[in-house]
Model the fold of this input.
Amino acid sequence: MTFTLKELSELVGGELLGDPRAGIKDVAEIQNAMPGEITFLGNDKYRKFIKTTEAEAIIVHKDFDGEYKNLIKVDNVNLAFSLCLSKLRPQIPKNPPSIHKTAIVAKTAILGNDIFIGPHVVIEDHAVIENGASIYANCYVGHSGRVGANTLLYPNVTLYHKCIVGENNIIHSGTVIGSDGYGFVRKDDTIEKIPQTGKVVIKKDVEIGSNCSIDRGTIGDTVIGKGTKLDNHIQVGHNVKIGKYCFIAGQTGIAGSTTIGDYVTIAGQVGIGGHIEIGSRVVIGAKSGISKSIPEGEFWFGYPASPYKVATRQIASIRMIPEMKERLREIEKLINKKDL
Amino acid sequence: MTFTLKELSELVGGELLGDPRAGIKDVAEIQNAMPGEITFLGNDKYRKFIKTTEAEAIIVHKDFDGEYKNLIKVDNVNLAFSLCLSKLRPQIPKNPPSIHKTAIVAKTAILGNDIFIGPHVVIEDHAVIENGASIYANCYVGHSGRVGANTLLYPNVTLYHKCIVGENNIIHSGTVIGSDGYGFVRKDDTIEKIPQTGKVVIKKDVEIGSNCSIDRGTIGDTVIGKGTKLDNHIQVGHNVKIGKYCFIAGQTGIAGSTTIGDYVTIAGQVGIGGHIEIGSRVVIGAKSGISKSIPEGEFWFGYPASPYKVATRQIASIRMIPEMKERLREIEKLINKKDL
Amino acid sequence: MTFTLKELSELVGGELLGDPRAGIKDVAEIQNAMPGEITFLGNDKYRKFIKTTEAEAIIVHKDFDGEYKNLIKVDNVNLAFSLCLSKLRPQIPKNPPSIHKTAIVAKTAILGNDIFIGPHVVIEDHAVIENGASIYANCYVGHSGRVGANTLLYPNVTLYHKCIVGENNIIHSGTVIGSDGYGFVRKDDTIEKIPQTGKVVIKKDVEIGSNCSIDRGTIGDTVIGKGTKLDNHIQVGHNVKIGKYCFIAGQTGIAGSTTIGDYVTIAGQVGIGGHIEIGSRVVIGAKSGISKSIPEGEFWFGYPASPYKVATRQIASIRMIPEMKERLREIEKLINKKDL
Done:
């Protein structure tokens, strides 16, 4: 399907500089874009490709000062591009509502309308599958588990007993929700398990990447707030509470009983210790190790982590040591010579 | 079900200060506990909630010097609390022994008594499932694999051929036991695979969290010792030997052929290199990178790691650099002025 | 089956020092090897075991200067040993071609010859399974997915729609190929998802360990080059391009749109930021955090990473700080005394 540049420019609410009748039939990355394709400049690193791209048009930020035959200027390049992507590349349509004959659905499970349950899915007793939910092949929903309205579980997701996934969630393959928290206690020379009797509660509009592990609470619940987005391979410990609209990037781990505020951004491979509080709107740099609470709105980085400015100053100061040593030697030489 | 405080105090072998007839019907976290609920003070960070909690009673350490209407004083708070938890919140009962009609069990597999095999489980030729084992939905037990007596595999566990899980194990969802070790050798400009012909042996009373990977040995075995507890997302390389009653926290990786002693504690996101030896009762701090062997009983930390005291001194000394630079400048100024 | 030392020495193209008629019936690690077994010395750390091993013969490097009753001297010990391993321990034979009766294979899927499709596998519409492919139990191949000739998917692998796995691949359990890239954009106080409409393309001769996540591209593709070998728990972000014959060790994460050249070696738990370029033949040390592009052939290490020599010098210089502080104090004392 082809759209005119005018149509797309109106779709994204942008300012069109160029030929409104230019036809756009696909999207492409700037380095590969061809005639008939629209691309975007979302990161200045790619600006060099403006000279070589064959794109029909480029979506740029409204402050962009370069030139190209067809431009759409917008406030938010990524958002505008995302809208074009949805328009030009419709997703594979949802599976029509159905319950596959190989799915094992307990008689006591409560099933909403318009749900899709794929092959080999297992739904245990007293589970609830709300209207419009899609549960792909080989997923498991434990005893009294709940899958919210219009939520999508990709294949091979495991939802343990009693755990709740809210509405409009997307959970990717391999993710495990509700495995036991890591709760043990040494007793003489052996180790006793502390029963993990709480559950996991995931609010609405959450997305969780592949191969994540969200542990159930010991007594209370592990909670992931509305609209929060988790990347892949993330571990969330027991009784952790994560607020709303947070970004948490891949391979990050959050130890038990820690609280994360709202609108927090956590980069990849971060480790956050247990029983601490991360304030709202905090930003944590990649690979940081956090062992203390962080007040609202701060930006921390490093291992062990400090406020960003302190961390970068420390890194810079390490680089000064050899020169300082040299100056120290100079002074000592001078002092010796002068026979002080 | 309701118990009196006297009953619970006897259960945990504690000293009761307060009303022995007080009725307890559930457990709760201290910040949320209500009348009729028992809670605990296991971490001083939560002491502030004593003023606001509505708990019927609090389990505290015997040296606790505060006051509350009903207290149970014990030697080991977490252990006592764990006992109350087991009493007040009985687990969902085990599935009754049965083999689901959709499970595919090879004719040559040897099945014990009182086992549960859930829907869509696959048990390959010559596998052995010992008495009382529970294998939940969608698990896979490879050729000649063995699942020990009373062991529980949660859904979606993969056990490769020949690998052995001992008795009384708990293995959480998504965990893979027996994938090939990372054994390759460069040959001219290509890479050859080294066959991974060993297996994995997991001893009794082990718990492994979700989404872990335990690789099989190249020639000999990868071994996890009795009573050791692994958190989630842990990678154990080929031919690694882990001793008994170790704690290994989430997202830790142990490279091939390394040996870990007994009673070792490894915090989260630690990386341990290959072909080294970690002595018994060693403790390793979170996110440490270990490339050398560590003698018995030592506490190491950092990246690259050092003994804990050395590591903390290094961290502190980095913070001194700016001040040292300032003093150096002062001396230089002075020397210049005095025209030395 | 027993082979003579002469036969094995010819197999590996080595120089035999000892009894050519000695019979070898198995392989073993040097510390455990018994008569009738061949072992190898691939790492000098194990040299001490030459005194105690009971091995029939040892494969050593051609420059080895020690003595043993039977030695095979070779150019590449690991390669020679790998050949012996293949000879002496034949793998469990491949499953004979068949499609299990519980597999759900879409009518529109295209199936090659001599394929194995195990129990509970799901193959969606328009998927292609090429000749000789083996797909083990509980795997999922999405709409229009492709599994190349002679490729092996171990149990519980998830291949999303449109994603392509080339020929002669080995993909271990729990690995997810084609989950959505982590693409979101803040919009006012909420977060919008950017559709992930690209795919994953894995070239031939690739091996991917267990529980990895390879995200699909946003517009273009995520690509893993020919012969590259991934360990376990690796995350590859959307639009990442990895070259050929790379080694990537466990728990490493590569953020979106980054390019990795050919013959690159990345150790365990490395984090690589987005939108950067890692040149061919680069080596990256364990646990490094890489936020900038690295030119061809360089060796980087640390967090934040630097060229290896710079990094080790920095580490060494931190250790000098306490001594420098002491010297500074001495000078100050001296200056004070002399009343400068």
In short: Chain A has two domains: 3-88, 98-307. The domain at 98-307 of chain A is CATH 2.160.10.10 (UDP N-Acetylglucosamine Acyltransferase; domain 1). The first strand of chain A starts at residue 3 and ends at 4.
